[in-house]
Write a structure and sequence with these properties.
heterodimer; A: about 300 residues; alpha/beta; Rossmann fold; Alpha-Beta Plaits; six-stranded mixed β-sheet; four-stranded antiparallel β-sheet; 11 helices; B: about 260 residues; mainly alpha; about 75% helix
Chain lengths: ~300, ~260
């Protein structure tokens, strides 16, 4: 059973001085899956990333990767993980090839085997023609690819990525995902990534939603969305409170008011919408009907929006 | 052990390449001490009559002090990059790589030391201008290396505890530059007021500079008359370098 587990986290907590960044987080990641840590900025994702990547030890709790403790057996963990940082961990004054060579040396790779592996990774990530270019002259997307090549040089079994698609255009983001999926399928690499993008979390096998350092939800994206119960109907009204009370009286529906809009979760939403509009046409300005997203899961569990104003 | 050396070597090499690619850094760490030497040296000129200076003119007295200033500046410039590098650069990857922290610290310090000594040697090519033989260069190499290693380690421990490069600049102006000024580089302790002599006596760089002077002039020269004894200078410099190296490793291990 334990052989099947890539990452096991129990009651992990971390504080920066008085500020609690993680407050007792527990979860497991199975081998060969793509696992997403979803949450708003400041939710604790990056702290969790840094602890799992062995950048610094947690204040309390335990995390093991392939059975080795990230705090007490950091070296064993480091050999088996590849880490991709949000700000690429590249020396911007050096060329692509120089960066990869140094990175390889840090993992004990050298000589012809390192040359071969560098060539292979540069070709796979389509940066081979940029091998001699200074990194600071490359676009953000290319730098991310070089960073990924560096993180994979030593053939890690687990790849940990922090916000891998930040700063990438949609095309580059799609390429990145295709590559990650292929990596998982062909080489069985387990992938753990943090993201603040709802659609990105949707592509993961399991999603852990973090808010203010605590686990809000943990399951497959589909299961989480099913728990919402059918469709999400959002109604704009000049009198949201009245409408909410009227809905309860007439249809026995528990509606909530959210950002001035009335929000209802309901199965067969389309049928309900027509009843709704017929009954309260004078109170309704507009109605939207949508399948639930992970954002709806977040709202349902925390009572506030995923994106706070200004983000 | 070989993976330790591989890591240390690769990090050392990275320092070299980085430095040489940044022309402004090469020039900056060399040109401003050179300018100080020419301006202050010529300015003070013959008004300098120190008890410690013997027959020496001021340009010559100030020469080893300028060498130490070059060592200080180059060491500092090579460690100040740690602050940014750790937050969003190559260092992030180094710190999650399966190498001992000491291998990383050693690579960084040896890199800074090599660069500092290289710049110091470059400046020492001017030695014949003040009547010092070029043979002083190989003689002083070891001491320059020792002092540069200590200063790079000092720069490392400061940089590691800083969040911003601005903070480092403040330390540079309030602590490092005075440390250099009060090492006997600009004026000898013998002519200074009593309290200043005490400060100079507890300043470790006083002994570093003395060790460099001893290695340039050798025993029996008038230029070393009022210096701390050679053995004492060497001992203090060794202890300084080793303790700061140890402090740098400890701090790196304890990173939160």
């Amino acid at each position: 059973m334990t052989n099947n587990i890539a990452v096991a986290v129990r009651d992990l907590a971390h504080s920066y001085g008085d500020r609690k960044a993680l407050a007792g987080v527990s979860f497991e990641v199975k081998r060969g899956e793509i696992f997403g840590l979803l949450g708003p900025n400041g939710g604790g994702k990056t702290t969790l990333f840094r602890i799992l990547s062995t950048s610094f030890p947690s204040t309390s709790g335990q995390a093991t990767i392939f059975g080795s403790d990230v705090r007490t057996q950091a070296e064993a963990v480091r050999r088996r993980i590849g880490v991709v940082f949000q700000n690429p961990s590249l020396d911007k004054k050096l060329t692509v090839a120089e960066n990869l060579r140094h990175r390889g040396h840090l993992y004990g790779l050298r000589g012809a085997p390192l040359d071969d592996r560098m060539k292979e990774m540069m070709e796979r990530l389509a940066v081979a023609d940029r091998a001699g270019d200074i990194v600071e002259k490359l676009s953000g997307g290319l730098q991310r690819r070089v960073e990924l090549a560096g993180g994979l040089l030593h053939r890690p079994e687990l790849l940990i990525l922090d916000e891998p698609s930040v700063g990438l255009d949609p095309g580059a983001r799609r390429d990145l995902w295709l590559y990650l999926q292929r990596l998982r399928e062909r080489e069985g690499v387990t992938i753990l990534l943090t993201t603040h993008l709802i659609d990105e979390a949707d592509r993961c096998d399991h999603v852990l939603i973090l808010n203010q350092g605590a686990v809000v939800a943990l399951d497959t994206p589909d299961t989480l969305k099913e728990q919402i119960g059918g469709d999400v109907i959002v109604i704009t009204s000049r009198t949201p409170d009245e409408l909410r009370d009227a809905l309860k009286e007439r249809f026995a529906v528990e509606a909530t008011i959210f950002n001035g809009k009335v929000r209802v979760e309901r199965e067969s939403g389309h049928a309900f919408v027509s009843q709704l509009v017929e009954a309260f046409s004078s109170m309704i300005d507009s109605v939207t009907l949508a399948k639930p997203t992970l954002e709806d899961v977040f709202i349902a569990r925390t009572g506030h929006r995923f994106w706070e104003d200004g983000q | 052990m070989s993976s330790f050396l591989l890591a240390t070597g690769t990090l050392w090499q990275r320092e070299m390449v980085r430095f040489l690619r940044q022309r402004s850094r090469v020039v900056g760490a060399f040109a401003s001490p050179l300018l100080f030497w020419v301006l202050i040296g010529s300015g003070v000129g013959s008004s300098f009559r120190g008890a410690a200076s013997g027959e020496m003119n001021y340009m010559e007295y100030f020469f080893p002090g300028t060498v130490v200033m070059i060592l200080l500046f180059t060491s500092i410039f090579s460690t100040i990059s740690i602050i940014e590098d750790r937050k969003e650069g190559f260092l992030q990857a180094v710190l999650v790589a399966p190498i001992p922290r000491s291998a990383f610290v050693l690579g960084k310090l040896l890199g800074g030391t090599t660069l500092a000594v290289g710049q110091g040697v470059l400046f020492m090519l001017l030695a014949p201008l003040v009547g010092i033989s070029l043979s002083a260069i190989p003689a002083a190499l070891g001491m320059m290396g020792l002092v540069a290693f200590g200063l790079t380690a000092l720069g490392y421990t400061i940089a590691w505890s800083m969040d911003s490069t601005q903070g480092f600049h403040a330390i540079m102006n309030l602590f490092l530059i005075p440390m250099w000024l009060l090492s006997g580089s600009v004026f000898p302790a013998s002519g200074a007021s009593q309290w200043l002599r005490w400060v100079m006596m507890i300043n470790p760089l006083t002994y570093g500079l003395a060790a460099v002077r001893w290695s340039i002039y050798g025993a029996g020269s008038a230029a070393t008359l009022n210096l701390p004894a050679f053995v004492l200078s060497l001992a203090v410099s060794v202890v300084f370098a080793i303790s700061l190296f140890a402090a740098a490793i400890l701090m790196t291990r304890r990173t939160k």
